[in-house]
Write a structure and sequence with these properties.
Layout lengths: L3 E9 L5 H8 L8 E3 L10 E3 L3 E6 L4 E7 L9 H6 L4 E7 L5 H11 L1 H5 L3 E6 L9 H10 L6 E3 L5 H20 L5
Parallel strand pairs: 1-5, 1-6, 6-7, 7-8
Antiparallel strand pairs: 2-3, 4-5
Helix pairs in contact: 1-6
Bound molecules: guanosine-5'-triphosphate (GTP) and magnesium ion.
């Protein structure tokens, strides 16, 4: 039996939880390319992803997801298009504890506009437990002001069920595209 494999991208800034989210749901020990973080100004944490994260999640005998995490450091943003080539969709993680999450979101709306324009994107707001300064409604209003409608979820990347909810949301979007007979 042939197994359909689809590529899912986790994008977002340093510390938004991409490596953590993949670790939460991957059925294999994720391949990680974390190194010591020399960019404490961008995010105050010990390790950061240098090239990519990789994990897998089997949905059924017929389908399996390949989970790719992009590096969050801005100087590595050239990797986004390399990693997301041929992807089914993108999960954008936004760290709600940073000083200006909307400006941060805009970077990813621009960087992944190709998938976003095809409605193959969802947004996960992480670290709301640390800081609830921006709520889901405010994110929707921000997106609306840009003429966009993208599903937004409040998640904790450390919680498997939260990451699976994001994944479900993305797959539902992509499946509705199949149903509508649009090109994916
Ligand atoms: N409190 C809290 N901590 C979180 C949440 N999501 C992720 N974290 C923590 O945030 C830290 C950074 O997460 P990473 O997964 O390394 O972030 P990343 O997006 O891979 O970062 P880069 O590889 O540097 O781009 C980890 O210690 C996680 O446990 C959340 O929703 N709440
Ligand atoms: Mg990482």
């Amino acid at each position: 039996m042939t197994q359909l494999t689809e590529k899912i991208i986790f994008a977002g800034s340093m510390g938004s939880g991409k490596t953590t989210a993949i670790k939460s749901i991957s059925e294999i020990e994720p391949v990680s390319t974390e190194v010591d973080n020399n960019d404490m100004a961008q995010s105050n944490k010990e390790l950061t992803t240098m090239a990519m994260d990789f994990g897998t999640l089997t949905l059924s005998d017929e389908s399996k997801l390949l989970l790719y995490g992009t590096p969050g450091q801005e100087r590595l943003s050239f990797m986004w298009s390399v990693i997301s080539d041929g992807a089914l969709g993108v999960i954008i993680l936004i760290d709600n504890s940073i000083s200006d999450p909307f400006s941060n979101l805009d970077v990813y709306l621009e960087g992944f506009s190709n998938l976003i324009n095809q409605s193959k994107a969802v947004i996960g707001i992480t670290k709301s437990d640390l800081n609830d300064k921006v709520d889901v409604v405010a994110y929707h209003e921000h997106l609306k002001s840009k003429g966009l409608s993208i599903p937004v979820f409040t998640v904790d990347a450390r919680k498997k069920e939260d990451v699976l909810t994001l994944l479900d949301g993305l797959i539902s979007l992509c499946e509705s595209k199949y149903t509508l007979g649009e090109e994916i």
